[in-house]
Design goal:
single chain; Aconitase, domain 3; Aconitase, domain 4; 3 domains; 6-stranded mixed β-sheet; 21 helices; 27 strands; binds alpha-methylisocitric acid; binds iron/sulfur cluster
Amino acid sequence: MGKTLAYKILEDHLLEGKLVPGEEITIKMDQTLTQDSTGTMVYLQLEAMDIEKVKTELSVAYIDHNTLQTGFENADDHAFIKSVAQRHGVIFSKPGNGICHQLHLESYGIPGKTLLGSDSHTPTGGGLGMIAIGAGGLDVAVAMAKGTYSLTVPEVFKVELKGQLRPWVSAKDVILKVLQELTVKGGVGRIIEYTGEGVKSLSVTDRATITNMGAELGATTSVFPSDENTKAFLEHEGRDADFVELKADDDAEYDGELVIDLGELVPMAAKPHSPDNVDTVEAIGEIKVDQVAIGSCTNSSYTDLMKVAQILKGKKVHPDVSLVISPGSSKITEKMAQNGALADIIASGARIIENACGPCIGMGQSPKSGAVSLRTFNRNFKGRSGTNDAQVYLVSPETAALSAINGVLSDGTKSGLSIDQPEMADFVQNESFIVYPEGHDTSNTEVEMGPNIKPFPRGEAPFSDIITSVTLKAGDNITTDDIMPSDSRLLPYRSNVPHLANYCFEKIDSEFAARCKEAGQCSIVGGENYGQGSSREHAALAPLYLGVRFVIAKSFARIHRSNLINSGIIPLVFEDPADYDKIEQGATLILEDIVDQLKESAFSGIITVVDIHAGKIYRCVANFSELEREMLLAGGKINYIKSNE
Ligand code: MIC
Ligand code: SF4
């Protein structure tokens, strides 16, 4: 039987275990990336591991999320990350250089290599033929310290692309179509591998748009073959030597498949408030638009922005629309300044902001009350823009730019206007934004710790019974934005969990933190796909700080489940989903003899929870790997590592 590309790369990196779906394996991790909003925790944890130099081939610390500096906090975090990066041999990318995933694609990604990033959109690297995985900060810290990563082997799901996209239809519409078909949990436990003739018509940055939003499918990662387009991309980036051809065997077998005819696709949009709430732009109709935001790690590449410049050239942004553009990297902005495209964009009335995540994470540019905001981003969860009642639609750059001119959601294929595919440009690395650790006596580098940087909470090893109060009963598809909201007000506290914890679940239930503090020990009950979205381990650390000991849900999103285990919080799954309805918020749930139960679950796969008031016993699936069980018994990953040193 032939091999999938995903398994070929995993096999090349396999250190322990069997490459069989559901088995736990350890792989060599070639590269890591961090960004600042999760990075402070990563580097605090790395410091706690007492290592000298990182063990990876390449590790980069990007500053791209918390770039608004309304107080000292974010700037202190940047300085902290820079100093730790120097000390441990990590490349530092200064604020203003651009968005981690776009920059990594341009400057460091290599086909066939593995990459672990403390950001859920790390799979963007799959556009280059990498196995690029998003993970919690602690997993990335460990990957830097050891050069390895352990994961449960996913299935490989094939998306076969046929034909070719029509003008005004682009990669964003492809992934929105996939999301419509598979939903936000369709990728859980899977790697999505793209194949077929249609792949040839997509550039590396188009592919990266698609693999980027594989995160919204809940997939472990997504991957494209490395072919002549990959070669061309690397050549344009001045990195010819990094090219290697990679593809699946012709007779590779997959665990499922979806076929998409690119030629039949039309412009799509994800309606409020979920990336899988997808419809065609035509069906949604010409709704009035208040804000258009172009950028983010999904759609801020050079060719995306050149298309935007082409559409805006000689036109004027509609009087009722605020158009804001945040380019993906300094190189892109520089090139567009040189070729005049930036001038065309500015002349149209667009607001150009920093090369950073910006509005995508609510770092400014929150739309007005009740606004319709079209965004080329990847997430439209309620309130993420910073305006709770805003209606955010996710669209392609083409749809965004045309709608900004018309003032209403517009379908380019119906516009009668022509649009050309922009040529790629030749780039040189902008070294002015990069600080290399080499050349410094890094061991003496003093770590700079601002007053807002507090120690991260550590779990405790469980013993006897865990008696909890259910401090929240939540519904399906709870996001990590719901659990630990992020915006310009809260992001400066990513290195201060005690402060951040006060805002845990704030948007769903403002009394949650207070109730937890009163209860002492707590549990949470959740529905399907609990913890989808971002990789922020704060969504586990804040509950840990508030006394949450376990979560029972119908199912969990991958990264959040790992973050809970890393923190020592036990994620349990209802064996009978109907039990969800039987538990009331405020109930007292007990995990009796937890140490014995955890140990026995290795054989039974079951842990029972007692609801004393209702007089009921719930059977929960405890499908932990051996390592996960050990970590839970130790009260979290750091405790486990420390006790095994
Ligand atoms: C996001 O897009 O939600 C973020 C902000 O990039 C997160 C990381 C974080 O919460 O800091 C992610 O995707 O992992
Ligand atoms: Fe940044 Fe948005 Fe991408 Fe997250 S999704 S890395 S906030 S641009």
